[in-house]
Amino acid sequence: MSMIEFHNVEKYYGDFHALHNINLTIEAGETVVLIGPSGSGKSTLIRSVNGLERIREGKLIVNGQDLANPKTDINRIRKNVGMVFQHFNLYANKTILENIMLAPRIVLHRDEEENKKVAMEMLDRVGLADQAPKMPAQLSGGQQQRIAIARSLAMKPKCLLFDEPTSALDPEMVDDVLNIMKTIARDSSMTSLVVTHEMGFAREVANRVIFMADGRILEDDSKDQFFNGEPTNERARQFLSKILH
Questions:
Q1: What does residue 151 show for φ and ψ, rounded to 5 degrees?
Q2: How far apart are CA 164 and CA 196, in angstroms?
Q3: According to its UniProt record, where is this protein mainly located (predicted)?
Q4: Residues with Cβ within 8 Å of residue 32, at least 6 apart in sequence
Q5: Has residue 33 got a pLDDT over 70?
Q6: pLDDT the model gives residue 245
Q7: Cβ burial 32-44 (10 Å sphere, 16+ → b, else e)
Q8: Strand, coil or helix: what is 77?
């Protein structure tokens, strides 16, 4: 079953053509990694999946709903599609536990006792259950990003989007966040779409690697073909050579 389908999708910012004729299908349970140079359209593509960016032409089907249809309830989409950003966007005036409980309370109207139970389970899943009563400022950047992941998981989404979640972190904090992402990727029920420059992560857990440049998908391969074989596109080969060496 398909979770995400792009059909001839075009996206513009004024006169700037950000996405060119995107055709892409991501099946439920897949982990797909998007890579490419800065400005290639990766973040625009991933942000369009939950309606943060609106497409101009084509169809974008997410969990059976067409985002290009003005009658589609975008909030219904977002109940099932979580997103983790470069920056953590935690509420500074709320405890870690309160940060995680907020969206399920408002959006899902989850029972308060059940909400707290799920929040603590998600904190435990990211290894930070003991941080529940603290404020975000008391945690490191890596811990805050793990909290942001727990917050998304608490909504029990069918799909998680990661937009360069480790790019704002100090190097020594990256591994802890990547390890959490790996456990999510190995969950066969979860669909993950990840924009990252972490090639080790892509090599270990991705089902597919997509290479983008200039708003176009130039390569869509299995991880083995991309890393152990050779991309068919010359620009993708050059990018891979620079990244790996």
A1: -60, -45
A2: 5
A3: membrane
A4: 26, 192, 193, 194, 206, 207, 208, 209, 210
A5: yes
A6: 64
A7: bbbbbbeebbbbb
A8: helix
